[in-house]
Design brief:
Length: 265
């Protein structure tokens, strides 16, 4: 079954961990938080994250300052980007990060890409035509570099759609309210705690191996549960597949799952 979009606090999972394993001592709280984040990253399905858009309600646009825009602190993965209201594309230029192009006499905005060429059908192409500077046709390019977006635009506004880490008001990670995810996280915490005892010589190898095998099982089933689409998602997939005319010009994928309607002539 698909995830239901709800989340639970990490404290609930830790309480269940005490009950499941019969711990009578206090667990290392900070370490457990780190391990919870590790477990979620290892499962790693996109649906476990929160989808956010900057420039909407409480999330302001990102400011471009000297070709760079700082990413949000809860950023996990980029989905789509627009610069000054126009879609941007990923930078394929090896010298994109020169930005101003003032190094080695290489201009990163230059359109000098070589001579024109002809395909097998007799069509002639000039690569320089697609390298017109951003200011003329709005061809903004971007790349991810550490905690920043680097762009070929010196100043402006960036709107991004991205996957964010789900956090509570205290900044602690939230866990999808799904039995598969809860079991997987608990098994990962059990394995990490058992590993410490095993390394100290206080736990038999067979017990640690059992914990490791349980984690290997539950991490797979948690990811598989997240992959299973619901009825509405299946309908959207059907609409994408059953088309006579492929939709290859999508920008934000807004109409990707809509049903194709052909006009009668």
């Amino acid at each position: 079954m698909a995830l239901n979009g709800k989340y639970i606090n990490v404290k609930q999972v830790l309480e269940e961990l005490y009950a499941d394993n019969g711990y009578q001592h206090e667990l290392p709280w900070v370490d457990c938080l780190m391990w919870v984040e590790e477990a979620l990253e290892l499962i790693g399905h996109p649906r476990q994250y929160v989808r956010k858009v900057t420039g909407h309600k409480e999330n302001p646009d990102l400011d471009i300052d000297n070709y760079k825009a700082k990413l949000p602190c809860d950023f996990h993965k980029l989905e789509r980007i627009a610069v000054d209201g126009r879609y941007a594309r990923y930078a394929g230029n090896s010298f994109h990060h020169l930005l101003s192009g003032d190094c080695c006499d290489i201009d990163s905005t230059s359109g000098d890409l070589g001579i024109e060429y002809r395909d097998n059908f007799g069509n002639t192409f000039d690569p320089a035509l697609s390298a017109t500077p951003y200011t003329e046709i709005g061809d903004a390019t971007f790349d991810l570099n550490n905690e920043y977006l680097t762009l070929n635009v010196k100043e402006g506004k960036v709107c991004i759609a991205y996957l964010a880490f789900p956090l509570d008001d205290s900044g602690y990670p939230l866990i999808p309210d799904d039995i598969g995810y809860k079991l997987a996280v608990k098994k990962y915490l059990t394995m990490k705690l058992d590993y410490i005892e095993f390394r100290r010589g206080d736990l038999q190898p067979a017990v640690y191996q059992h914990s490791e095998q349980e984690w290997a099982w539950y991490v797979g089933q948690a990811g598989n549960r997240a992959k299973m689409p619901g009825v509405a998602e299946m309908e959207s997939i059907k609409n994408q597949m059953l088309r006579l005319k492929p939709n290859v010009a999508e920008g934000s994928f807004k109409y990707l799952g809509t049903k194709e309607i052909r006009k009668r002539h």
